Amino acid sequence: MDRVKSTVNNMIKSVQYRRFPLQRDDEPNRHVELKMADDDEQADVANANDSPTYRPAHRPGGAGNKRFIFLLVLGFVVVFTVGYFLGNVTLKKSEARLSGCLNQTGETTAQSVQTTAQKTTTTTTVAPTKQQDKEEEKDDGAVVDEAVRGIPTNWNEISRLLDNKFTRQNFERRFNEFDVPARPAGSQGDIRVANLVADEFGALNLEKWTDVHYVQLQKKDSARPNVITYNGEEFKPEGYLAYSATGKVTGKLVFAEYGRREDLDERKNVEMRGSVMLIKVGKISFAEKVANAEARGASAVLLYPDMRDRNYDANSPLYGHVHLGSGDPYTPGFPSFNHTQFPPTNSSGLPGILAQTITYNHAQTLLREIGGPDNVGGVKDITVEVNNVLVNTEIHNVFGVLTGFIDPDEYVVVGAQRDAWGKGFARAAVGTSVLMELAKAFKDLVEKDSVRPRRSIVFASWGAGEYGSVGATEFLEGYLTSINRKLVTYINLDGVIMGRGGFIASASPLLHTLLENTMKEVNSPLGGSSSLYDMVGRSDWEEKVLRPMDVDDTAYPFLAFAGIPSISFHFITPEVEEYTYYGTSMDNKDHLKFSTNQKLEEMTVLAAKMAGRMALRLIHNHLISLDVDRYLEVVPVAISSLYIHVQRLVQEGQLKGVDPRWLSNAHGSFMRATTNLKKAIMNTDMTEDRGARFINEKLMTVERNLLSPYVSPVDTPFRHILMGRGKHTLAALAENTDPRELHTQLAFATWTIKMCANAMISDIWQNDNEV
Q1: In this structure, are residues 8 and 79 in contact, taking their beta carbons and an 8 Å threshold?
Q2: Where residue 161 falls among pLDDT bands split at 50, 70, 90?
Q3: CB 417 within 8 A of CB 465
Q4: Helix (H) or strand (E) holding 357
């Protein structure tokens, strides 16, 4: 009887529903609306009927009223009878269809649907089949059981459908497609790959867009090569470092290991001012090595690969860049659009000294001149000449967009760089291959499997990545005001495969829980039934997996410049946390296959599943998968170190007018705001769109509001007070001993934390200093 009543009620209720078909390029924009008439709308209808300006065409009276009542009762009986029989027939058919169809947890699909409805964070919107499309065009009021349609309705089903789309054979084909001889930024090879990407986005019927920038890239001067001269001999290295200072200097050669601060501290008795530092590649970025050398007064840096660290050809040239930043360093904070006029400003991350790469054999010759690496200095007549030139270069960012069905203006970006110094197989070819397979897989989920994601997903192919995430940063600088409140997360695909048997990742704390859960769902690269999470170790996975995000990571400007939660991950060889062939001609398919024990395609399938499942969670769930609790593990540690430092300076009388309790109060505000946000999540029906959107918008403000509003994007582009770079960060303040500067920066940092807390708690008129 309950089923009969439900059937009748569904037939009588007025349901406003419009189908959302797949939008094609030649069709106008359409929108989805699924809405039950609420009390306000019903009141409007009632008022319309009572209005003096509203008159029906005919108002029956007398016998007409009796006839009308009789027909209404008769109609109700007919509807009741038809509904009863239809309900029973449909139920029997659906039970016969669903019996024995068990999902992964052993429930029937019908039970799974019920369970999924209760778990509000894993419910998706689904679309009708083509036949039902036609039927529903006739009757918009029809509501069909999704389980009967055979459309996936729970997370396990949808994620397995996605996983099954990634195959070894597909990646073999992709590698052949994107393995080109050379693709420097803006070259014909780069443009060829960009066209391949754009054409496939069009073939997939994604919304396609190309973002063009005109940037200054520093390249070698073909007429005047760079030259190294010592003891009357000279050699002209083939490799070079983009964004080096140019000119000619002579100085004493000093060996400085990896160029880290601790390496330079060990050489305090060695005169470094005016020296030419010989530094090994590895441990930190090229730009950091040069910046550390410049801080010690060096006039030039020579970088070389040590054969004990990496299996190089001893004469292999090495390429890279030394801009301690990202984007076009000659338009810092501004987009490099064509014909735009900006002030002649240089990035603060540009080095003021010369930098050049040399081969291992050349380095050994120099080391012999100074008596080996243990004898740090000796040669006094080494000369370095760098003649690099700036070239105005057109670069393309290529996008394909799969529009969401409920919150299309919220989107997740998945991206990979497209250019490389040479073949660039590990970063550019593999990353682009994974990007395109993800685009195809998600399109298939929507078109063939009838999955309807809530949010949009953007597939991005970046230009000029080798020069310091130039394409990605210029995109952010150009459209930050449009995207920073709507871009949910950035997932980086550069270098996802660097080896086999290990795994590392760099991510915003907001994404640590998503990363952990995804690691539990993806198989171990070593085979067997264990998960990636089991392989790295359950109890201390964070210590083994998580690494600080490097400035050369394409995800870094999204996180530290734009305040967008971002993540990069890499399958590695245990004990080796880098792919040693980056920036060389040896970065090819054969070397990467060797690094993965001939399991390259299988490893790439795992990487695609890893990125795909994270993206699917982010566009699928009612509640965006951002866990603010994880910042409660990061903020207290950073504040504690700074508090101890400030308290000591206050006690010693070096810092006046400052109270360490400023930090305690800011920490307390952040804690209370986080607690209140968690309560709001628990008390909100996340299946109700307005409530879900309100909560999600609060979650999306957290990262953005940890950017300091008090620093210039020209001088300090990475404004994040925890993950950024500069004097404004909590880590830098914990080492600052300048009373005046520390006083000011401490006030700014404290208020940044409190503003972040205020943004989490409520709207401004409801805040009332609650935190």
Answers
A1: yes
A2: very high
A3: yes
A4: strand 354-357
pLDDT of residue 287: 97
Q: Which residue has the tokens 């001067």?
A: 221
Domains 161-211+398-417+427-620 and 227-387 share a fold: no
Q: Which CATH number fits domain 628-767: 1.20.930.40, 3.90.470.20, 1.10.10.10, 3.30.420.40?
A: 1.20.930.40
**Per-residue b/e over 437-459, b at no fewer than 16 CB within 10 Å?**
bbbbbbbbbbeebbbbbbbbbbb
Nearest to 586 by CA among 319, 258, 257: 319
Rounded-to-integer distance, Cα 733 and Cα 749, Å = 9
Of 3.50.30.30, 3.30.70.100, 3.40.50.720, 3.30.70.20, the CATH number of 227-387 is 3.50.30.30
Q: What is the dihedral of CA 712, 631, 488, 747, to 10 degrees?
A: -20
Phi (first) and psi of residue 301, to 5 degrees: -135, 135
Backbone phi, psi, residue 15, to 5°? -110, 125
**What pLDDT, on the 0 to 100 scale, is given for residue 66?**
53
- Contact, 475 vs 397, CB < 8 A? yes
Q: Categorize the per-residue pLDDT at 47 as very low, low, confident or very high, splitting at 50, 70 and 90.
A: very low
According to the model, what pLDDT value does residue 709 have? 95
Query: Residue 475 pLDDT more than 90?
Result: yes
Type of residue numbered 330 = Y
CA distance 640 to 667: 9
What residues are paired with 504 via a beta bridge? 570
Q: What is the pLDDT of residues 48-87, one digit of tens each?
A: 333 333 333 333 344 455 555 666 656 665 655 655 554 4
Fill in the DSSP letter of residue 228.
E
d(Cα 464, Cα 321) in Å, to the nearest integer?
11
Tokens (6 digits) for 226: 């760079």
Q: How many CB atoms lie within 10 A of CB 393?
A: 22
Q: Work out whether strand 227-230 and strand 382-386 pair parallel, antiparallel, or are unpaired.
A: antiparallel
Query: Which DSSP helix (H) or strand (E) runs through 212?
Result: strand 207-219
Task: Report, in this order, helix, strand and coil percent for the chain, each rounded to 5.
Answer: 45, 15, 40
Q: Residue 459: in which H helix or E strand, if any?
A: strand 455-462
Give per-residue pLDDT as tens, 453-472.
Answer: 999 999 999 999 999 999 99
- Decide if 331 contacts 325 (C-beta within 8 A): no
- What counts of helices (H) and strands (E) characterise the chain? 26, 21
For the chain, the structural domain boundaries read 2-153, 161-211+398-417+427-620, 227-387, 628-767
The values of phi and psi at residue 569, to 5°, are: -145, 155
List residues bridging with 392 in a β-sheet: 216
Q: How far is CA 532 from the centre of its chain?
A: 20
How many percent of the chain have pLDDT more than 90? 68
Is the Cβ–Cβ distance between 551 and 718 less than 8 Å?
yes
Higher-confidence residue of 676 and 309: namely 676
State yes or no: pLDDT of 246 exceeds 50.
yes
Torsion angle of C-alpha atoms 282, 283, 284, 285, degrees rounded to 10: 30
Q: 161-211+398-417+427-620: which CATH topology?
A: Aminopeptidase (3.40.630)
CA 69, 70, 74 angle in degrees (round to 5)? 115
The residue type of 523 is N
What's the whole-number mean pLDDT along residues 709-737?
A: 95
Instruction: Outline where DSSP puts E strands in 231-284.
Output: 233-235, 241-242, 247-251, 253-255, 276-280
Of 350, 411, 707, 728, the C-alpha closest to 561 is: 707
Query: Hunting for tokens 């499309």 — which residue is that?
Result: 133
